[in-house]
Amino acid sequence: MDSPAGSAPLDQVLLFEDGSRLMVRHYEVRGDLVVMTATDGMLYSVSRTYVNLEATEQVNLRRGGETGSAALSGSAERSLARGRPIANSEATKNGIAGEEEAVFDGPPPPSPPEVISRNDKGQATWRAVRLAEPLIVDGRLEDPVYRRVPAAKGFIQQEPYEGEPATEPTDVWFFFDDTNIYIAARCWDSQPERIVAISAAPRAPTK
């Protein structure tokens, strides 16, 4: 992004479909990706389906910003396409102070409203969803968000038959807010009458 001579670069805002926002140095749309320079100088990319581009452009125009562009080398482009930061040397070539490269080896992030994607290696990538309202943590899973956000399903066994499909379904949700990460699970059982519960309540002291 260009700035008037003698002025500091104006950071831009990315608005995401889940209502969250992120300050970045600049961003641009490349095909199915939104490529951004983070405030720490690293280059990242996310699926454009995550970003509310119309709202993002309106906000940045009101702030006096515009989308910027940086010329990237071929290996940098490949790194961005794989959804991971560019290595130190590549970031330096583009005039950006980079950090040690973080390697991501897995399927691409799922596109909303999906929350999990898988590949033929058995790997999975999860999408955590930002909460728009406080979550009631009472073990009942009755908040509206559980009906609005699809659960991750299709798990496999670890025991007794590792890699085989689970014999009972499980629904899992990943949420987050500004201070916490929440993991909720609903574990189904086709024979609930066979569940054995053992009380761990402390016994009263005896004399």
How do the helices and strands line up, and which of them pair or pack?
Elements: E1 12-15, E2 21-30, E3 33-38, E4 43-47, H1 53-62, H2 74-81, H3 88-93, E5 116-118, E6 124-126, E7 129-130, H4 145-148, E8 170-176, E9 181-187
Parallel strand pairs: 7-8
Antiparallel strand pairs: 1-2, 2-3, 3-4, 5-6, 8-9
Keywords, separated by commas or semicolons:
single chain, 207 residues, SH3 type barrels, three-stranded mixed beta sheet, 4 helices, 23% strand
Structural overview:
It is a single chain. The chain has 207 residues and is of the alpha+beta class. The protein has 2 domains: 12-93, SH3 type barrels, CATH 2.30.30; 116-194, no CATH class. The chain is 14% helix and 23% strand. Strands 1-2-3-4 form a 4-stranded antiparallel β-sheet, with helices on one face. A 3-stranded mixed β-sheet has the order 7-8-9, with no helix packed on it. The longest helix is centred in the N-terminal third of the chain and has 10 residues, at 53-62. The relative contact order is 0.10. Residues 1-9 and 65-102 have low confidence and may be disordered.
